[in-house]
Amino acid sequence: MKKIFFPLVLIVLLLAGCDGFHETKKLIVGIDDGYPPVGFRNEKNEIVGFDIDLAKETSKRMGVEFEFKPINWNAKEDELNSGNIDMIWNGFNITPERKEKFLYSKPYMENRQILLIKKGKELDIYSEYDLADKIVGVRAGSTSEAYVNRNEDLRKTFSDFKTYDTFKAAFNDLVTDKFDVMIIDELAGRYEKSRYVDKLDVIDVTIGPVTEIGIGFRKDDTELRNKVQEAFDAIIKDGTAQKISRQWFDADLTK
Question: Is the pTM of this model over 0.70?
Fold first, then answer.
């Protein structure tokens, strides 16, 4: 009987440990390492960013190591469901389509499109309708470009509309008056404004819809989501998340 009983007990314990989150020494966080300032590589090829700092602080509260793993962003669902990563934490917009595939944390940030202008330039802009007769620039392939292209009536009011392959090229033209105003994702815009405080200013208006950002998990990984949420809530409550936001964006963008 003993020979039968003890293996059965062992199997039951192993199965119990495989159901949802169990205490572990390492969790793998999937990221896009080319999305400053959320997650990117610095001049030393180190992975850094706003979400990286939030995740590191959360891992300390959990007592679990987080390993950051760059993934194919277009295959993020497969990366997660195959077990290659345990969560996605990288400016991950919450959409109705994604909510059918992923389990999310509570939203911790809103994301929107704002405006950047050359520092010292005076423009009376209080909404997107005030962009009429302005030369407007965007990053090619961005949410900003997609929004303008979906709204042909808005685009027709511009004096001209320019797209740029890189932020660097756009900022160079912006500060040399090649165009008037840039529509840009707030995360990137606030970050660049903090880096070029003597060259760029933000016009704090919302262009297009506002989205929310959360941490993504496998659809059935409720226990892990709850453990991460509990630790993340603590850094929101004690002001650590807000401090990290101000370091990256020169503003508190957390919810």
Answer: no
